[in-house]
Write a structure and sequence with these properties.
globular
Length: about 280
């Protein structure tokens, strides 16, 4: 048994608990090092610089930041059923511990939503007294396809997951692989490129924290996908939908950035061993 992977070791027909906790423990330790406070980010200079930006650049940034106001609010609301689905799944890792990691991710998503809502309120000055009001105002600045994906497609999949009409693999495919791994990835890279000259330092500081969080989210999602062993049809559909997911940004994100993020889906599935054919990364 020495040559087996930790999650494959079995004693008397049962997984050894210590080995089944390897991946949940790994992600839990990682999360502990990445804690940050979205209210501690100083946006004072950002408020001043926003008003001084050229109108064209402000419009470009508004589209992406409004997208994150909508998207992060949606994912924060829709992740809850994933923990229960993990408990009910058959995984190589201990199911209750994987559910705990989903809880840790849920805390991250709440932080992200809070941070981008601060940007919406303090920097973008979107109208509204509440986060829900500002999210409604943000919808006017993002494409309809973006809103449909996050506020119709995602809630539908989450509801199916909660009702037992969809499996964890289907939920992970949408939430982690497409929404976080493609849509958010493309938007984050667009913001990194746009803010490379040092403008809006508070936005950039918070964004760096968000990017670090999203990296482990996608990695965790991929780990869950490996352990659910989805069908070839599920994986093929996932790859086929990557370009469509990236396209929801429209012209708010450069085409080259969208295409690069979309290609990452096939690459991740290849390096994880889930698919043999590798797309150019």
């Amino acid at each position: 048994m020495a040559d087996q992977e930790p999650w494959d070791r079995v004693v008397a027909g049962h997984f050894v608990l210590e080995k089944r906790s390897f991946w949940p423990d790994f992600f839990s330790r990682l999360v502990a090092r990445l804690q940050w406070d979205p209210m501690a980010v100083d946006l004072t200079r950002d408020v001043r610089e926003w008003a001084e930006l050229p109108a064209e650049r402000r419009t470009r940034l508004l589209k992406v930041l409004a997208g994150f106001e909508v998207g992060e609010g949606a994912v924060a609301e829709q992740i809850a059923p994933y923990a229960d689905a993990a408990r009910k799944a058959t995984l190589a890792s201990q199911e209750s511990l994987m559910a705990w990691v989903f809880f840790l991710q849920r805390r991250d998503e709440a932080r992200h939503a809070q941070f981008f809502d601060r940007i919406a309120a303090e920097v973008l000055a979107l109208p509204g007294e509440t986060a829900a009001d500002r999210r409604a105002a943000a919808r006017a600045h993002v494409p309809d396809a973006f809103v449909e994906l996050f506020e119709e497609r995602l809630p539908a999949v989450s509801a199916d997951l909660a009702a037992g009409h969809a499996g964890l693999a289907e939920g992970i495919s949408l939430y982690h692989m497409l929404l976080e791994g493609v849509v958010f990835d493309a938007g984050q890279q667009a913001l990194v490129d746009e803010l490379a000259d040092g403008v809006l330092p508070g936005v950039r500081q918070g964004l760096e924290h968000v990017i670090q969080d999203e990296r482990w989210h996608v990695g965790f999602g991929l780990r869950c996908l490996i352990e659910t062993q989805p069908s070839t049809d599920v994986l093929a559909a996932l790859v086929a939908r990557a370009g469509e997911a990236a396209a929801v940004w429209g012209d708010a994100v450069p085409a080259a950035t969208r295409e690069r993020s979309a290609r990452k889906v096939a690459h991740r599935l290849h390096v994880s061993g889930l698919r043999e054919t590798r797309a150019a990364a």
